[in-house]
Write a structure and sequence with these properties.
Layout (H helix, E strand, L loop, with lengths): L1 H4 L2 H11 L8 H15 L6 H14 L4 H4 L3 H14 L6 E5 L3 E7 L8 E7 L2 E6 L12 E5 L9 H6 L2 E7 L13 E3 L3 E6 L11 E6 L7 E9 L2 H4 L2 E3 L3 E6 L3 E6 L4 E8 L6 H28 L7 H26 L6 H35 L8 H23 L4 E5 L5 E5 L2 H36 L9 H14 L5 H4 L6 H13 L1 H11 L2 H10 L12 H13 L37 H4 L2 H12 L30 H15 L1 H5 L2
Helix pairs in contact: 2-3, 2-4, 3-6, 4-6, 9-10, 9-16, 9-17, 10-11, 10-12, 11-12, 11-13, 14-17
Length: 674
């Protein structure tokens, strides 16, 4: 009762004496002390002298044990903010400074807010400046924060009137800021706080940027920009990274930005996977440059020579190569365009197209896998009309819808970002948009590609076991090369990003960077340079002397004749003609109008002798067929058994397959080179 009759100044002086020796206070005494502080601060106005006494009490409490203060930490942090809100300002700015805690309050005009900066190089000499200020030397600055001129633009007229002061707080000790779930993170900076009157400032158009000096060099750690969230850990408070981004990190300081106001700090998380960003950037740019060159060569080859782009797989490959080429070119230009910091619209456009072509590349990888699955496993009986048109609408249309939604929600989802190595880049700024429109999108395609790849491989493995006599021409090296080629085509090398953690993190990070930046180069190697029919076209039209291949050579006549014969036949039967003498290496849409079930630019054509797959597919599609019209391009043949159980007529179709096998064996040398 005695305390209630005393003046606030007298009570504050008593509390100051009690806190001279914090080791003697228990949790109950601290609770009573904090309650008395709240009563003092609840008055309408606090003089500078009383404010100094109150802040001295709170400064003394910072020397108490963390366990004792844990239940009262949020109340003490808010007491400092409330003190700044009630403090009587005699001049433009008032400073109350102690060895572990500093409070600065400055007058502002909420209706015409100016860019305001707070810097503290000397703990006993904080500085507040209006308008844009010069950069403070990083070696001497403990903390700095800059509030943009747009800080109050989202406030109502009534709130702008209230926004007449800004409070800055600086804690050199982190006693009040104890997170029960630090996730193996350590606090590596002092704590810098900022608030405008008693208003909630969030979702800013221009982020608040702050710089904090590192307590120790970053080294093999990953810095994380965080703010103090009063609601975490059941109301005890905790660090939260939402809305905050790392702009730049050096050994001495960390620069962050957040879209709201509160108490800020920098956490460090141990990262045993930390790699040299400059080396990875160098690898990426070299790899993307090589990929762009070889993707251009691949596109020119397929677009120039009609004979190698007649089948569906080749057409899908052309779309994928074009998407990857544009992705690499935009990526290579991105860092250069990001240097124009004033050209915000240019950066947004660059990030938009980079995102679009990335999704286009993902989508066409998925369509490659889908076509392989449809042709090998499903083997439709009916002709699918406008097959490539439908694929093109999906491959180019779905990514366009996604990026339009992202930029439609908020065009500022795209813009300038700064990586930890100091590189400026135009990319997706919003974390949620990135994870939904990039990570989740790719995860769906990657999982589907992996599943379809596995199903097809199991299916072909079963066929090989059922026909072991057809594997005598195959080697393990051929099969391995085939699988590797398909892995790059379907983008399965992106799996290294999913498993880049733990002891293999560093190795997988470099593998991911190397293999994916060189994806276009490997596509050229496996699906252009190693393809026999592509090399033949090069020899016929690009080479001279002994390397030149005559246009009227055996291979040229065979390929031309087969392409013509393959285009004859009735669409409603779903089966296109094939001559008795030979079968082309790509079959040119031999079945169902879907495309070659064994196209040579994928693993299917290399996995085994083609007669095995043709028998398997034909047994699925036409086990009942006996004869067909000769004028349709499909030769008449008596019934034959397709299997050893003799459940089908025994001669005609057997002769048909015998002729087909002779043709394929005649061409086996060409297939075995793939």
């Amino acid at each position: 009762m005695e305390a209630t009759t005393k003046s606030p100044d007298a009570v504050a002086n008593d509390l100051l004496k009690q806190t001279q020796n914090m080791t003697s206070l228990n949790s109950s005494q601290v609770n009573q002390l904090v309650s008395q502080l709240d009563n003092i601060i609840s008055t309408s106005n606090i003089s500078l002298e009383l404010g100094q006494t109150v802040l001295s009490i709170i400064n003394n409490l910072l020397d108490s044990s963390k366990d004792t203060l844990a239940p009262f930490s949020n109340r003490l942090i808010q007491a400092v903010d409330n003190l700044g809100l009630k403090l009587v300002i005699r001049n433009q700015t008032e400073n109350i400074i102690f060895d572990s805690l500093a409070l600065t309050v400055t007058k502002v005009n909420g209706s015409n807010f100016e860019t305001t900066s707070f810097a503290i190089a000397d703990p006993l000499n904080p500085q507040v400046t209006k308008e844009q200020v010069r950069e403070v030397e990083s070696s001497s600055s403990l903390a700095k924060i800059t509030l943009p001129a747009s800080l109050t633009e989202n406030l109502s007229p009534e709130e702008k009137k209230i926004a007449s002061r800004v409070q800055f707080t600086f804690f050199q000790k982190s006693t009040f800021f104890q997170d029960e779930n630090p996730s193996r993170q350590i606090l590596n900076s002092h704590i810098l706080g900022c608030s405008v009157a008693n208003l909630s400032i969030k979702n800013l158009r221009e982020n608040v940027e702050f710089t904090l000096k590192n307590k120790k060099p970053v080294g093999n750690h990953v810095p994380s920009c965080v703010f103090w969230d009063y609601g975490k850990n059941g109301g005890l408070g905790g660090w939260n990274p939402d809305g905050c981004h790392l702009n730049k990190s050096t050994e001495n300081e960390t620069i962050c930005s957040c879209n709201h106001l509160t108490s800020f700090a920098v956490l460090l998380k141990k990262n045993e996977c930390k790699s040299d960003g400059k080396i990875l950037s160098f690898i990426t740019y070299i790899g993307c440059g090589l990929s762009a060159i070889f993707l251009s060569v691949t596109l020119l080859t397929y677009l120039t020579f009609e004979k190698i782009r007649r089948d569906i797989p080749s057409k899908i490959l052309i779309h994928l190569c074009f998407g990857l080429l544009m992705l690499n070119l935009v990526f290579l230009l991105d860092s250069w365009l990001a240097l124009y910091q004033n050209a915000q619209d240019l950066c947004i456009s660059t990030a938009f197209f980079l995102h679009y072509f990335l999704l286009v590349s993902f989508t066409w990888m998925g369509l490659e896998a889908l076509h392989m699955y449809l042709a090998i496993v499903k083997v439709f009986n009916n002709f699918m009309s406008r097959y490539m048109l439908k694929f093109s609408l999906v491959g180019w249309g779905v990514p366009l819808v996604v990026v339009i939604i992202v930029i439609g929600v908020n065009k500022d989802n795209y813009g300038f970002i700064n990586f930890s190595d100091g590189t400026d880049f135009c990319w997706i700024k919003n974390t949620i948009a990135f994870y939904v429109a990039v990570v989740a999108y790719f995860c769906i395609i990657f999982v589907l590609n992996l599943v379809m790849f596995g199903v097809v491989m199991v299916h072909l493995r079963r066929i090989k076991r059922q026909n072991p006599h057809n594997n005598q021409y195959r080697s393990g090296l051929h099969d391995l090369r085939s699988i590797v080629g398909l892995t790059f085509l379907l983008g399965l090398t992106w799996a290294f990003a999913f498993f880049a953690w733990g002891p293999v993190c560093l190795a997988f990070t470099y593998m991911f960077t190397i293999l994916n930046s060189l994806q276009g180069f490997f596509i050229f190697i496996f699906h252009c340079a190693l393809k026999e029919n592509v090399r033949k076209q090069w020899r016929m039209y690009l080479c001279c002397g002994s390397l030149r291949l005559a246009e009227n050579s055996e291979w040229s006549r065979t390929a031309t004749q087969n392409s013509k014969n393959a285009s004859i036949g009735k669409a409603d039967s779903g089966f296109h003609s094939a001559p008795r003498s030979s079968v082309s290496s790509d079959y040119s849409m031999l079945y169902q109008g879907i495309g070659s079930p064994m196209y040579d630019n994928l693993v299917i054509s290399r996995e085994m002798n083609d007669d095995v797959v043709l028998n398997e597919i034909y047994s699925k599609i036409h086990p009942w067929k006996r004869t067909v019209k000769a004028d349709s391009g499909i030769h008449s043949a008596p019934r034959s058994s397709l299997s050893s159980d003799d459940s089908m007529p025994s001669q005609g179709i057997g002769l048909f397959w015998q002729e087909m096998c002779k043709c394929i064996l005649f061409k086996s040398r060409m297939f075995l080179t793939l």
